[in-house]
């Protein structure tokens, strides 16, 4: 693997994947730019929205809560998060989050290493453009990228 090189990502130019009435996902730093060391994303999450409980089998994930009010379940324990809070989720840990506020909320997250998580999000997006993305399709796509859904959303 080549050594990583410095990169400057411009927020307003970040590729954006919009999942209507749910999450707007911004790709802030691709794993392709870091030679797979990490990938950084931002979600703008609509009220009442969050993913199902899931596990990343090959990556650690770190959440940075930027705006709004979230709850998150990490390893079976429930937490409340406000702007400025951070959470670290080691690989293999069941987790999920939800925007419990009345307005859109934002969080950033880092996957380390990047692996193919970006490709998973892109495949979710592509399938959603072809029609409603079912839970079965999400589980199938996730499994190819080292993620497993293990329960319903919060």
Automatic annotation (TrEMBL):
Residues 44-107 form the Cupin type-2 domain. InterPro entries: Cupin_2 (IPR013096), QDO-like (IPR053146), RmlC-like_jellyroll (IPR014710), RmlC_Cupin_sf (IPR011051). This is Cupin domain-containing protein. The lineage of its organism: Bacteria, Pseudomonadati, Bacteroidota, Flavobacteriia, Flavobacteriales. It comes from the Bacteria. Signal peptide: none annotated.
